[in-house]
Design brief:
This protein has helices at about 30-40, 80-95, 120-125, 175-190, 255-270, 295-300, and strands at about 1-5, 5-10, 10-25, 55-60, 70-80, 105, 115, 130-135, 140-145, 150-155, 155-170, 195, 210, 220, 245-255, 275-280, 290-295. It is α+β, with helices and mostly antiparallel strands and about 300 residues long. It has two domains: about 1-15 and about 160-300, Alpha-Beta Plaits, CATH 3.30.70; about 20-160, Alpha-Beta Plaits, CATH 3.30.70. The strands form three sheets. Strands 1, 2, 3, 4, 5, 6, 7, 11, 12, 15, 16 and 17 form a twelve-stranded mixed sheet that branches. A three-stranded antiparallel sheet has the order 8-9-10. The protein has a two-stranded antiparallel sheet with strand order 13-14. Strand 1 and strand 2 (about 5-10) form a beta hairpin. Helix 1 crosses helix 2 and helix 4 (about 175-190) crosses helix 5 (about 255-270). It is elongated and about 65 Å long.
């Protein structure tokens, strides 16, 4: 299979179930909303060691926010609801409450949410008795007096089952071609609502495999078959002779459909970059998760 002259391997990306909360952060302008969003989603690349996978979803225009201010939606993902409850409280309490002019609202529709957490209700006690409960845009919120004015947070935040680990690999003739393709893919995925690319800058430089060939105590280790510096040193390298740059894009989302769409637009953006040789994906024979995104079906080939 080919797309734009680039080989698309007949394989699939293996993904796994996750619990996801969508939070809408607003502020006096888009700059401060994004500052809060990025701080709140920090240290959120992989649940291998991070307490959550997290990232910026999309920018929300003023006409769609409860308080009529610029907004940024974020996703926070964990394996279970208990951990998600803890992450919401910690991240919003430490990164949004403390951010100049920022407020936090539920980012899921009522019919989407399977679970609700009383994050805002808990955070109101920071007000030490000076807090109040009101409505903003028809939503029940807590208002906490702070040095910068008032911190507004919706009392309940919704969460639902999601999908984590949708992915594809970009194989290129050199590192810079692969990086340009990865950057373009991340930019395209950034427009797909309900998805994030949680790794640093949206790009994975150190794609991993499950388990270890040598160290029993490791749950994940380097995916040596896709390391350009090892292709002539190991048996079973998956890299063609002309490939010297590889990056992976990992996608989390609120649904299978959202992740599939993100993979599609990301791959279509990546293959347009000169020097890209091949697109493939990571899977581990079903040991990682139950979702399989076949590249052929994702792209409609």
């Amino acid at each position: 299979m080919e797309l734009e002259g680039v080989e698309i391997e007949d394989t699939f990306a293996e993904a796994f179930p996750i619990k996801v909360a969508r939070v809408l952060i607003t502020a006096v302008n888009e700059k401060w909303a994004m500052v809060a969003a990025k701080e709140t989603t920090g240290f959120g690349t992989s649940v291998i060691m991070c307490p959550a996978e997290a990232g910026v979803d999309v920018i929300i225009p003023t006409e769609e926010t409860p308080d009529g201010r610029p907004g940024v939606a974020i996703l926070i993902c964990t394996f279970g609801y208990k951990a998600l409850d803890e992450q919401l409280l910690a991240r919003i309490g430490q990164c949004v409450l403390t951010c100049a002019t920022a407020s936090a609202f539920n980012g899921l529709k009522a019919e989407e949410a399977e679970k609700e957490f009383n994050t805002g209700f808990k955070l109101k006690f920071f007000g030490d008795g000076f807090e109040s409960e009101e409505e903003v845009g028809g939503r029940a919120v807590a208002k906490i007096p702070v040095m910068g004015g008032e911190f507004v947070v919706e009392k309940n935040l919704g969460a639902k089952p999601g999908v984590a680990g949708g992915n594809f690999f970009i194989l290129a003739k050199d590192q810079m071609s692969a990086l340009k393709a990865a950057e373009d893919a991340v930019a395209a995925i950034g427009k797909v609502e309900g998805t994030i690319t949680p790794f640093t800058g949206g790009v994975v430089a150190s794609g991993s495999k499950t388990g270890s060939l040598k160290y029993k105590f490791m749950h994940a280790t380097v995916n040596e078959k896709y390391c350009p510096t090892l292709k002539d040193k190991i048996e079973g390298s998956e890299l063609p002779a002309d490939v010297n740059g590889v990056f992976e894009i990992v996608i989390d989302g609120v649904s299978e459909a959202a992740v599939k769409e993100a993979m599609k637009v990301g791959i279509k953006a990546a293959v347009k970059v000169p020097g890209v040789v091949k697109i493939t994906a990571g899977n581990f024979g079903g040991t990682l998760g139950k979702y399989q995104f076949k590249l052929k079906e994702v792209l409609g080939l």
